[in-house]
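Input:
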Amino acid sequence: MNQKQIERLFKAARSESAPLPEENFEARVMRAIRREPAEMTLLEQLSRLLPRLAAAAAAVIFLCIAADVCLSNFVQPDMDSGLTQLAEQWLFAK
Amino acid sequence: MSDQDAELLVRIRNGASNDFSELVRRHQSQVFAILHRYERDRHKLEDLAQETFLKAWRSLPQFDGRAPFAHWLSRIAVNVALDHLRKIKRLQNEVSLAELGDDALDWLRHADERQELESRQAAELLAVAMRELSPAEQVVLTLQELEGYSIKEICARTGSSSVAVRVRAMRARKKLRTALERLTTDAKLK
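Output:
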């Protein structure tokens, strides 16, 4: 295939007309735009994040209390009395 | 930028988002014409056109109005086409005769004679042969040969340097010729 034939091919393809957009194509685009999430400010993003942060903090506090109750009742004395015991043992040993 | 576009853009920026539909109506034919050079399937073409306008909507705050809105939009359309070509390149890059009609095959067999090919079949044949090219080469060759843009205009639309555009155009022509020669040989054997 020579350059002249390729040029003929380009020339023929150039004159092809594109299909017309469907009727109400702009309505389709506007529907897609409305589905887009709106752009949020930093304050809006933070206020949206706040309930999740509060829930996570509450969960951590609850877990710590539960762990402390379990450990002090079933496993070993709580940290406070454990430390006192250690200090007394150290004093008496001297 | 046309005064009417400028007026509409001011209204949209002031919160009249529904006026964007008027911009879509004005420029949809232009966007379809650009994208049709890269995607021939009607449904996919509409999806790409929608994506172009969505991207334009999202980037509207960055549009400074120095260039006409139509130019800015055409640049977005070319980028959407380029992304699309990259996606489909991963799935298919084999050049085969199976997708060509009888007229295109016949033209390949007798291309040396003074036989003319219809515009649709010529575009189909080029689309098949262009699969041998990289997406960036396809875009450059299409803009240069089918849209008739100069190197400078192609640089503005693709954001590439003039050297890169020239090199891509040269490589693209070479690869296209090889692909067409292979298709011609296959068509003659068929």
